[in-house]
Specification:
The protein contains 23 helices and 5 strands. With about 575 residues, it is mainly alpha-helical. It has a 3-stranded mixed sheet with strand order 3-4-5, with no helix packed on it. Strands 1-2 form a two-stranded antiparallel sheet. Helix 16 packs antiparallel against helix 21. The longest helix is centred in the first third of the chain and has 26 residues.
Length: about 575
């Protein structure tokens, strides 16, 4: 009965929900298997196909419909909206009872799992709503004072999160477990939390932010020095980054924590269908991100003359190899296949067709993909370390060499030179992030470049925009491939026509396998010849006083008179 309860959701999300009737202090929490079974339910908190939601909500993935966040179309919900507390109540109930178990090793480890998930729960609430009420115990349904608690300060919430993570780090087992919480998972999450809050407060000029950046550095350093993780690679810079993400099973040398998928138990996702079909969003990479990839020799692509009006095959030639392992470029083949494929403009709004996580065609049907998806990985920890040190002003070349250099080594890219980056900050990156300033601005911009490229489609972009206080970045033009006009185009340099752009009547004698696309109907261009994927939303606004946080539902404000609405949503 308990197992079934953990496999399905519960419709009652209120704080005063009664404990599960089959799980009581008298008949449960007595054996190691009880603790494991109960904590298994906490893993439902992790995202599944929404693993790349943070990219689609922001400017990393351009689809047929822009997110409400990008359109400025969010409204105050009546109920729901992420204001749910069921998981927290289950975690606190466990922490009030798990010490009844006589197995000391199990009690220590699974207690650590619960502390990890309470930290994870509150981190998600903090990112979405900012200040929230804090509960470290289950609430009696008659305790109106607790049920109507006011919001606690950000610092109070973050300090409790870090306390829980420190307890988890102390108690959790040290082992490589791709799909289970371990000490390494807690360290990785601590590095993320510290960086998030440290930069969130720094870019809002809140005193004390250094404490959180140092917490990020310390957690990352422990993982870098005292864990079995490393940057995955087989020595092939042309495929290793792609293989890390299109392997059916998580590469445990780098993946600290993943979401597991398997056809055997009918647990799957839709990434193949999402990226290959013309009927499900048509996601594409935006041109400003394509422009951000360096040349393979480490020089800046955007320093080249007319970089924004190069035809696709010239544009992607000689670039950071992660570009050709993230979108279709000349020479691309599907996993397990030998046929080279040009970009399918019908499956992408920008012309830059996504390939990250994509596997064999047999998994192209909706909800058939089985690649394990990353939640925490060592590559992110390296980026967290470098960024936190840069924001503290303590970054050295040695720090870069033992963090970002490892990621660039995987794809055969030159290292990041601290002195050169700060001496000549990239004006293209500066335009994207105008709030970055100071003596370290050049290297901070380079780390942001690296982060956006390395962590693409891993659910980080929205959070990064928020913590950097860089909402205006989301109002910049969204663009795609350059085409000089109507005509025939070879997209993969094989000598054959792949795309025909036309105006007016469809061309006669159409060739099978060639894409025929009508201008100003199937595709739109701006005055410079760049695909305009969202011509109806070229004027967008981001409210700096409102849009970094989400609104609290109306019913919750009525139920708890001590709650206050987030600024700008009143």
């Amino acid at each position: 009965m308990i197992c079934i309860l953990f496999m399905v959701g519960c419709s009652d999300d209120f704080l005063d929900k009664q404990p599960l009737s089959d799980v009581t202090a008298d008949n449960f929490f007595l054996k190691a298997s009880d603790l494991q079974l109960y904590t298994n339910g906490f893993y439902r908190m992790f995202p599944s196909t929404a693993i790349y939601d943070g990219d689609a909500r922001a400017d990393n993935i351009v689809s047929t419909t822009l997110s409400e966040e990008m359109r400025g179309a969010r409204t105050i919900p009546t109920t729901g909206g992420g204001w749910d507390w069921e998981n927290l109540r289950d975690i606190n109930y466990f922490l009030e009872n798990y010490e009844k178990c006589e197995d000391e090793a199990a009690k220590r480890h699974y207690g650590g799992v619960a502390y990890f998930f309470r930290a994870y729960f509150y981190f998600e609430k903090l990112k979405r709503f900012g200040e929230v009420p804090y509960y470290d115990a289950t609430i009696d349904p008659d305790d109106m004072e607790s049920l109507q608690a006011p919001r606690e300060s950000r610092q109070f919430i973050v300090d409790r999160i870090l306390e829980d993570l420190d307890r988890a780090i102390e108690d959790l087992n040290e082992e490589v477990q791709a799909f289970r919480i371990t000490k390494y998972s807690a360290l990785a999450l601590k590095s993320r939390v510290g960086l998030y809050e440290g930069t969130y407060e720094k870019y809002r000029e809140i005193s004390g932010y250094e404490t959180y950046l140092n917490a990020s550095v310390d957690a990352a350093m422990e993982l870098m020095d005292n864990s079995p993780y490393e940057v995955y690679g087989t020595g092939n810079p042309d495929t290793d980054y792609m293989t890390l993400f299109n392997s059916h099973d998580a590469q445990t040398s780098e993946m600290i924590l993943s979401r597991q998928f398997s056809q055997t138990v009918a647990v799957d996702h839709n990434v193949n269908y999402y990226t290959t079909t013309s009927s499900f969003g048509r996601p594409g990479m935006p041109k400003d991100l394509v422009n951000s990839y360096l040349m393979q020799d480490g020089s800046r692509f955007t320093d080249n003359p007319n970089y924004d009006q190069l035809f696709f095959t010239a544009e992607v030639a000689g670039r950071d190899p992660r570009l050709s392992q993230t979108i279709r470029t000349p020479g691309y083949t599907r996993k397990g296949e030998s046929m080279e494929l040009a970009p399918n403009l019908g499956a992408t709004m920008t012309g830059y067709q996504l390939t990250k996580y994509v596997t064999e065609p047999v998994y192209d049907t909706n909800d058939e993909s089985i690649t394990d998806l990353p939640i925490l990985r060592f590559g992110e920890v390296l980026l967290n370390y470098a960024e936190a040190k840069a924001e503290l002003g303590t970054l050295t070349q040695s720090d870069l060499d033992m963090s970002i250099q490892l990621l660039r080594d995987r794809v055969g890219m030159p290292g990041l030179d601290l002195g050169a980056a700060n001496a000549t900050p990239d004006p293209y990156m500066q335009d994207q992030y105008p709030t970055v300033s100071g003596a370290n601005s050049g290297v901070i911009l380079e780390i942001r470049r690296e982060r956006r490229i390395e962590l693409y489609m891993e659910n980080h972009r929205w959070d990064d925009i928020v913590r950097w206080k860089s909402g205006q970045t989301l109002t910049q033009p969204l663009r795609g491939l350059y085409f000089p006009g109507a005509g025939e185009y070879d997209m993969d340099d094989d000598g054959d026509v792949d795309v025909v752009l036309f105006e007016g009547e469809e061309p006669s004698g159409q060739v099978q396998g060639v894409q025929y696309i009508r201008i100003n109907s199937d595709i739109f261009f701006d005055a410079e010849g760049l695909i305009d994927p969202q011509p109806d939303f070229n004027t967008r606004a981001f409210d700096e006083e409102r849009d970094y946080l989400y609104p609290i539902p109306r019913v919750e404000l009525q139920l708890n008179p001590n709650l206050t609405q987030n600024p700008g949503w009143e």
